[in-house]
Amino acid sequence: MFRLDGKCAVVTGAASGIGAATAERLAAAGARVSTLDLTPTEALSAKTGGIGVVVDVSDERAMSDAISRAAAAMGGLDIMVNNAGIGDGEALLEGQGTALYERMFRVNTLGVVIGTRHAAAIMARQGRGGAIVNTASLAGTFGFPTYGAYTASKGAVVSFTRVAATELGPLGIRVNCICPSTVDTPMMDDPSAAAEGAMMAMATPLGRICKPGEVAALIHFLVADDCAFVSGQAVLIDGAVTAGFAPALVETLVAAAVQQAI
Ligand SMILES: NC(=O)c1ccc[n+]([C@@H]2O[C@H](COP(=O)([O-])OP(=O)(O)OC[C@H]3O[C@@H](n4cnc5c(N)ncnc54)[C@H](O)[C@@H]3O)[C@@H](O)[C@H]2O)c1
To answer: Would you say the CB of residue 137 lies under 6 angstroms from ligand 1?
Structure first.
């Protein structure tokens, strides 16, 4: 079950975090996996049976070439994971204007659109269907203060995924996106992100943030043929943080409210 023998996959943002864990997981399930990133990934792709390509996902010509090369080297393309992304934030009234929005949308949104278009074109030519997973974020479904640019760029991934699923469904190509809450990856390394990670652990009913391997497991599930009737979905992986308040958070807020009332 959930074997990927004979499948050929491309994973973007594969040098680190969720992408690296996904490339390793899909390869362990039997797929050949090519790894695309701004950072070289040859050591990883040597283990995962594909090629490593240094590419910027927002550069359409370079991405078209990279996906075509990967498909040619592996003998086709069945799975595309558009995972590369960047994160940053600034307050709406104190920030630099639209520059951050342009940067976030170029990588997080256009990178996904470009990867989907060029992967789907190859899958359509092959005529054997395919599965595409885009990495959105819990932030794409939820308003986080100061993260307007990131949140909007990920919300657009959710919307785009739905449209792509409708257009590509008749070709047998499934398109889903995933919406992780905070994941313990190098993206969370800077001190302010680490503090937010600690806050999210307290707010999450499961009492911690997510691990990259847990996100990779969800992506594996979504790309497997066992999941053949799931398409057009934005799947949350969030430790129940959107289901309700964690008891630890309630206790902290009640204690703060009591202090204020005294
Ligand atoms: N870490 C989190 O808390 C979290 C939560 C929700 C969603 N995500 C999303 O998960 C995805 C993976 O993030 P991660 O946490 O593994 O971060 P990460 O920083 O560990 O990995 C991101 C990878 O993307 C690559 N990359 C960045 N810009 C690129 C570009 N223009 N072209 C090609 N490669 C590029 C980086 O080199 C890096 O290897 C991102 O889309 C991120 O927005 C992360």
So the answer is: yes
Beta bridge partners of 134: 82, 177
How far, in Å, is the centroid of ligand 1 from the Cα of 260? Answer: 40
pTM of the model: 0.97
Segment 129-156, tens digit of pLDDT: 999 999 999 999 999 999 999 999 999 9
Instruction: Report how far ligand 1's centroid is from the alpha carbon of 262 (Å).
Output: 45
Residue 210 has a pLDDT of: 98
Q: Which amino acid is at 251?
A: E
Q: Which domains does the chain have, with CATH numbers?
A: 8-261 (3.40.50.720)
Contacts of 180 (CB under 8 A, 6+ apart): 18, 135, 137, 138, 210, 215, 237, 238
d(CA 68, CA 24): 21
Which of 134, 185, 238 for mutating ligand 1's site (highest number of atoms within 8 Å of CB)?
A: 185
